[in-house]
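Example for tutorial group B:
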């Protein structure tokens, strides 16, 4: 016990005092000191002299004076938060000339004396958020020329002095969010030429003046959401040539000026949702090759101009949703979005969509159209969308959906069709057949239920067939797709029932009772389309063939509509054939007649000319 005492005497009393620590604090040799507890009412006076980082939290500290930091000349960082602190005297920080960071957040400070920070010439961070400040002296930050970060969020500020930031030429981060600011002087941000982040969210700003951002060429992020902005001047954002993130949601804008978002080539995130916009100008967005995500929801828009997104060439995700009045989109709405992977259009009021509206979306993988009022879709709406794997169509007004619509989505892996008022009439049988063949692709398969007629309500769509409804089989022109007999020229085929269907592509003869002669059909052409029903698990049984000897499945019209492809399972075999029809034969005959008449006329004219020439020579 004598050794420590002798050491203190030898090295000096002050050095030993430097290792003392108050009872409610934790002191570390590296210069950190943490004080906490309701017993603390003032800054402890016997902290180690070598303290560089001081944190005082959740105490009963109510006042800071010049004595509070006496004997702590090496302080670099001070954090005093979550206290009932209300008063800071003018000379409190006079001795902390080396201080780099000062956090006074989450206290009860309502005012600050003018010049209270004037001695903190090395300060880089000042956090005053979550207090009760309502007024700031004009010269409060005058000597803080090295300040990089200033946080004033969550106070009661209503106005700011015009020149409050005049000395903060190096400031990079400014947070004024969650206050009660209504107006801002047009030149308030002009000195902040190095600013990177500006947060003005959740205030009561009604209007922003043209030129307020004119010197902020280095700004990367601007947050204006949750204000009361009713209008913005044209070209407001044009000076922000390096801006990457712009949040404007939850304001009162009903219109946006022409070319509002031009000259923002580095933008990677843009949010303009929860705004009562009633229209959009045709030219709104300039070149934004880096923009990856765009959200537009909760507006009063009824339509969107064509080509409006054409400059967002790098867009990967587009969300246009919860716009209750939005009922129409031009066919060129999504022109140019060749990089788009995900398109969300749910919870709008679309009754229909244009045929070629998705024609540019070559890389689209996911399409969400749920919760609209769609009752139909164009037959080729998914044509050329070779990467589309996910489609959401549930909770619409579909009574029927042509199977050709879904067959066009050749890479489809997941689709939702439930919660639609399906009308289980003869027109839905082809969709029912597609459902049976693609159940592994259908989400919530068991919820695909008939809505009408009443005697079929809640019956599963997969069970609907022509025979159940006693419907006549479909026809093409006047040709009923049903035969009295089918003969195969393949004499080697085994007509016994098998577990695995075999496919024959031979010449068949079909006899139609109302035709005067037999009609010979050509060998089936190579078929490139996938027919999921040609699988072992869905082979027609002998019993089914006995009951339905002439059952036809999956009639498909080729794009030329001049060839009909049929497939029929007979005794375990899958037979494919085509009927070739030439719709241009009458036209060709007419052309031949006209050409023949012209030839006769030329012969007559030539004969007359030859005769006249001979007469002239004779004379």
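The residue assignment follows.
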């Amino acid at each position: 016990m004598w050794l420590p005492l002798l050491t203190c005497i030898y090295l000096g009393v002050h050095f030993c005092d430097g290792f003392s620590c108050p009872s409610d604090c934790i002191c570390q040799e590296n210069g950190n000191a943490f004080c906490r507890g309701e017993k603390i009412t003032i800054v402890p006076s016997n902290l180690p002299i070598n303290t560089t980082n001081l944190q005082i939290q959740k105490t009963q500290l109510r006042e800071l004076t010049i004595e509070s930091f006496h004997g702590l000349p090496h302080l670099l960082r001070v954090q005093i938060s979550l206290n009932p602190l209300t008063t800071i005297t003018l000379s409190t920080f006079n001795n902390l000339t080396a201080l780099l960071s000062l956090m006074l957040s989450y206290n009860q400070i309502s005012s600050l004396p003018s010049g209270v920070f004037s001695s903190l010439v090395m300060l880089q961070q000042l956090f005053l958020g979550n207090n009760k400040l309502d007024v700031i002296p004009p010269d409060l930050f005058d000597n803080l020329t090295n300040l990089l970060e200033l946080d004033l969020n969550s106070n009661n500020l209503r106005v700011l002095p015009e020149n409050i930031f005049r000395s903060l030429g190096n400031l990079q981060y400014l947070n004024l969010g969650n206050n009660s600011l209504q107006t801002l002087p047009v030149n308030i941000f002009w000195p902040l030429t190095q600013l990177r982040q500006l947060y003005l969210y959740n205030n009561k700003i009604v209007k922003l003046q043209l030129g307020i951002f004119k010197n902020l060429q280095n700004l990367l992020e601007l947050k204006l959401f949750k204000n009361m902005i009713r209008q913005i001047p044209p070209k407001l954002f044009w000076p922000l040539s390096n801006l990457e993130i712009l949040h404007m949601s939850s304001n009162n804008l009903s219109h946006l000026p022409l070319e509002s978002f031009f000259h923002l080539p580095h933008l990677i995130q843009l949010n303009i949702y929860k705004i009562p916009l009633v229209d959009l100008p045709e030219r709104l967005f300039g070149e934004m090759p880096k923009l990856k995500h765009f959200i537009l929801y909760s507006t009063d828009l009824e339509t969107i101009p064509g080509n409006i997104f054409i400059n967002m060439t790098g867009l990967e995700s587009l969300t246009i949703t919860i716009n209750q009045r939005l009922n129409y989109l031009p066919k060129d709405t999504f022109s140019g979005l060749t990089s788009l992977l995900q398109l969300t259009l749910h919870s709008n009021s679309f009754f229909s969509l244009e045929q070629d509206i998705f024609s540019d979306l070559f890389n689209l993988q996911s399409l969400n159209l749920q919760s609209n009022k769609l009752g139909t879709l164009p037959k080729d709406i998914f044509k050329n969308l070779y990467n589309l794997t996910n489609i959401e169509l549930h909770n619409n007004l579909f009574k029927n959906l042509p199977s050709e619509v879904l067959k066009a989505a050749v890479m489809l892996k997941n689709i939702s069709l439930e919660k639609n008022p399906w009308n289980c009439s003869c027109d839905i049988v082809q969709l029912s057949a597609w459902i049976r063949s693609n159940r592994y692709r259908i989400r919530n398969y068991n919820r695909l239920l008939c809505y009408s007629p009443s005697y079929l309500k809640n019956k599963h769509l997969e069970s609907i067939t022509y025979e159940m409804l006693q419907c006549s089989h479909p026809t093409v022109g006047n040709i009923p797709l049903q035969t009295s007999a089918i003969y195969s020229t393949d004499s080697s085929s085994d007509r016994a029932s098998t577990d695995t269907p075999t496919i024959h592509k031979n010449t068949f003869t079909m006899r139609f009772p109302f035709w005067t002669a037999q009609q010979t059909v050509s060998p089936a052409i190579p078929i490139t389309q996938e027919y999921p029903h040609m699988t072992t698990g869905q082979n027609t049984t002998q019993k089914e063939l006995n009951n339905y000897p002439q059952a036809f499945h999956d009639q498909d019209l080729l794009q030329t509509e001049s060839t009909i492809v049929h497939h029929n399972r007979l005794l375990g075999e899958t037979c494919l054939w085509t009927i070739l029809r030439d719709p241009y034969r009458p036209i060709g005959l007419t052309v031949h007649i006209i050409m023949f008449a012209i030839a006769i006329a030329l012969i007559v004219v030539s004969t007359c000319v030859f005769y006249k020439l001979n007469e002239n020579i004779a004379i």
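Residues 382 and 406 are 8 Å apart (CA to CA). Compare this with the pattern of hydrophobic and polar residues in the output above.
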